[in-house]
Design brief:
By secondary structure, the protein is an alpha+beta fold. The protein is 49% helix and 14% strand.
């Protein structure tokens, strides 16, 4: 159930169990892995703790954890950070919107922060075992349910947006509750993605979306002059010529001018760079930052980046941090000497005189590494000025590679498990007369897993080839490595399929699966050519 922030904590940030989609050939799943999604709903109430308590209570669902809760009286806004499994966190978000619609009246709401809904914005962020593509599907499901249950119209934003204009939240929220209320029925661009063109009388409209980690970061200045904060915000935000992946506005908060910012990709525009930019701009007006604040949570990596930059540590790596190293080693995620999660143990397992893991698992690992490399290259080009014209293609490649990477990782264990099940089936055949049925099913599974690996690796290789023309040419060696790994994965997996099909031909020659599998192998040959 929903737990307080003092309990189990997962990585998160903000000021925000169904298998992933698979190809038509996926008659068997690659494997089951943990899925974690973060949701950071923002509610237009930051002064009445009783109301916020009731909203949080409404979101208590098994499988959902409360990581953080922030209330700001000046902004009159609350930010709740949740993490949980896919279905559970969707339902929690829907119920939170419903309770907010019941308790919050925007016709009397006043606060520094722009707002258009009682539940103003509800973003979903992939954490583990799930992709941004999956979060888009979640956002659309939640949007439809909000309208159906509560008659609150919903707009989709960021990665879930249905039009480019709605990718940016500020475009949707322009004019706030009052402006949208006046125009929603008459201006075509104001019509919601879900629901009729009318706002809820008191709860307004809600924006639901899917995005990467966002850091809500505010800098306070030693002046009450809010115009200075607004000018600095204009200079720092990307939409008016500032830093990429930064959104900013100026407010008067607790008697001080505040530059309020959302950092939408801290890996490419780190928090320390943003602070230094604000500090430099402030100096132009004879003021200084006096403090800054994080609203919600922040990824540890963001603070590690800042520490490295300000301390000027040579050859810094996160594994140099004692707690990181301790957690990684005790959790089996790192071997002393810096090797990453599972690499050294996996290689030793391959070398051990046991049947599993074997070539099929190695092929899956090779394919997963290929997908990871291609993902890295695409991610490092996406958002860069030189490649903005390829933003859509890069985004699609990143989403698909994330899905393929998770499937191929799951197949490492799935292949070994399929082999072990086959051995058990053969053993059972010797002990009972009906064991042949089990052998047939086990052989199909033993052939299906590497067949899916081969198809997944082939797709990774194709995506990596396409990335050559739309990514940084200095990273071409990474793509070359990715393609070579993917092809090795495909060849190794195909060999595993073939050997299992030979066994099937001997033990269950009439099985229709044999012909289907061989056709899929031929399709791979055509694709390779």
């Amino acid at each position: 159930m929903l737990q307080g922030a003092g309990g189990v904590r997962f990585p998160g940030s903000e000021s925000e169990h169904q298998p992933v989609a698979s190809s038509s050939h996926d008659s068997y799943a690659f494997g089951v892995s943990v899925t974690l999604v973060e949701c950071v709903p923002n509610f237009s109430e930051g002064r009445d703790a009783v109301k916020v308590d009731a909203i949080v209570e409404a979101m208590k669902i098994p499988g959902v954890h409360l990581l953080d809760r922030e209330m700001d009286a000046d902004h009159n806004r609350s930010v709740i950070t949740l993490v949980g499994e896919r279905e559970a966190i969707q339902e929690a978000a829907i119920r939170g919107v419903g309770k907010a619609a019941e308790l919050i009246d925007l016709t009397v709401h006043q606060g520094a922060h722009p707002r258009m809904g009682a539940a103003d914005v509800v973003p979903f962020i992939p954490i583990e075992g799930i992709t941004l593509e999956d979060c888009i599907v979640m956002a659309r499901h939640v949007g439809a349910e909000i309208w159906k249950r509560y008659q609150v119209p919903v707009y989709l934003y960021e990665a879930a947006a249905t039009t480019p204009e709605r990718q940016n939240l500020e475009n949707i929220r322009r004019g706030q509750f009052e402006g949208i209320r006046d125009e929603i029925a008459t201006v075509a661009a104001r019509k919601p993605d879900f629901g009729e063109p009318r706002v809820h009388p008191t709860a307004g409209a809600t924006v639901v979306g899917a995005r990467k980690f966002l850091i809500a970061y505010n800098v306070f200045l030693n002046t009450p002059d809010v115009d200075v904060a607004k000018r600095i915000a204009k200079a720092v935000r990307y939409s008016s010529g500032g830093l990429r992946f930064v959104k900013a506005a100026g407010f008067l908060v607790r008697g001080l001018a505040q530059v309020s910012m959302n950092l939408t990709d801290f890996e490419q525009t780190p928090i320390h760079r943003v602070f230094e930019y604000v500090k430099r701009e402030a100096a132009r007006y004879g003021v200084l930052p006096v403090s800054s604040e994080i609203v919600g949570l922040i990824p540890k990596a963001a603070l590690e980046q800042a520490a490295e930059w300000y301390l000027q540590v040579e050859n810094f790596d996160s594994s140099l941090i004692l707690e990181n190293r301790l957690a990684a080693v005790t959790g089996g995620k790192m071997a002393v000497g810096g090797l990453r999660a599972g690499v050294e143990p996996f290689i030793e397992q391959l070398a051990a005189p046991t049947a599993t893991p074997g070539g099929g698992s190695a092929a899956a690992a090779s394919g997963a590494m290929a997908a990871g490399l291609a993902f890295m290259v695409a991610s490092m080009s996406r958002g860069k000025k030189a490649y903005l014209q390829y933003e859509t293609q890069l985004g699609e490649a990143i989403a698909r590679l994330a899905t393929l990477r998770e499937k191929l990782k799951a197949a490492i264990d799935a292949d070994a498990e399929a082999f072990n099940l086959l051995m058990q089936a053969y053993k059972k055949t010797k002990q009972s007369e009906d064991g042949g049925v089990d052998v047939a099913a086990a052989l199909r599974q033993a052939a299906t897993v590497p067949l899916q690996v081969a198809e997944g690796a082939a797709e990774v290789a194709q995506i990596a080839e396409r990335l050559r023309a739309i990514t940084n040419p200095r990273m071409s060696s990474d793509l070359t490595t990715a393609i070579a790994l993917a092809r090795a994965a495909m060849e190794g997996a195909r060999a595993n399929v073939a050997i299992n099909l030979e066994s099937m031909q001997q033990d269950t020659p009439q099985d229709a699966f044999i012909g289907q599998a061989r056709q899929r192998l031929r399709d791979l040959e055509v694709a390779k050519a």
